[in-house]
C-alpha cells in the first residue's frame, strides 16, 4: 500500500502554501474539507488564516469531532498561526467573544494578533529545538503564546520567546514555516 497523504485543512486560509511546502518535501497531500477525506490521511496540517472563520466552517462541515478523534488516535497534527489558535486550550478572554472556539488539543494560552496588527507583521530567524540552524519564520498577525501548560514542550523560540510548542503528536507554531525560505516542518 502506498503511504497515505498528509491532509491539509482547506476550509480557509493559506492551505495552498502548505501544499507547495509538502510537495517540496516530496510528500503527497490531500485537501481536507469533509470527514471522509480526513480519514484517508496519515497526518493533518491546520493552516494560517482567520481562526474566527475557521471555527465557523469547522462546525459547519462537521470536522471538529473527527479532528479530535484523529488526534486521540495519535496521528500527527501541525497548526500554524491561526492553526495554533485552533489547537490551543485557551484563547484570550476578549478574543473569545469574537467567536473563536478552539479544539483544546494543546495546553497553551494564546493571544490573537499578539504581536500587533497587519503592519506589524515581520520575518525573522527562529531557533528550533534540536537543530543547530535557525529557520525563517514569517509572522503575520501572529498569535502570542502567553502561557505553556505542564507537559507541553517548547520547540521553537524567537528572541527567547516561545513561538512553537508540542505535546506528543500535536504541534503548534505561531509563525508560518511554509511561507519562509526552505521552511519545512516535518510531520
Ligand atoms: N490573526 C489571525 C487569527 O487570529 C491569524 C493570522 C494568521 O494565521 N496569519 O486567526
What does the model show?
The protein has about 190 residues and is α/β, with parallel strands linked by helices. It has one domain: Rossmann fold. About 25% of the residues lie in helices and about 30% in strands. The strands form two sheets. It has a nine-stranded mixed β-sheet with strand order 2-1-3-4-12-11-10-7-8. A three-stranded mixed β-sheet has the order 5-6-9. Strand 10 and strand 11 form a beta hairpin. The radius of gyration is 15 Å and the shape is globular. Bound molecules: glutamine.
In brief, what are we looking at here?
The chain is an alpha/beta fold and 187 residues long.
Chemical compounds bound to the protein: glutamine
Number of helices: 6
CATH structural architecture? 3-Layer(aba) Sandwich
Structural class based on helices, strands and sheet pairing:
alpha/beta
Unreliable segments (pLDDT under 50, ≥5 consecutive)?
none
The major β-sheet equals: 9 strands, mixed
Just give the CATH class. Answer: Alpha Beta
Task: Walk me through the topology.
Elements: E1 6-9, H1 15-24, E2 29-32, H2 35-39, E3 43-46, H3 51-60, H4 64-72, E4 77-80, H5 82-87, E5 88-91, H6 93-96, E6 106-111, E7 122-128, E8 135-139, E9 144-148, E10 153-158, E11 161-167, E12 170-173
Parallel strand pairs: 1-2, 1-3, 3-4, 4-12, 5-6
Antiparallel strand pairs: 6-9, 7-8, 7-10, 10-11, 11-12
The structure holds glutamine.
Glutamine is lined by residues 48-51, 81-82, 85, 112-113, 140-141.
Short descriptors:
Rossmann fold, single chain, binds glutamine, nine-stranded mixed beta sheet, globular, alpha/beta, 187 residues
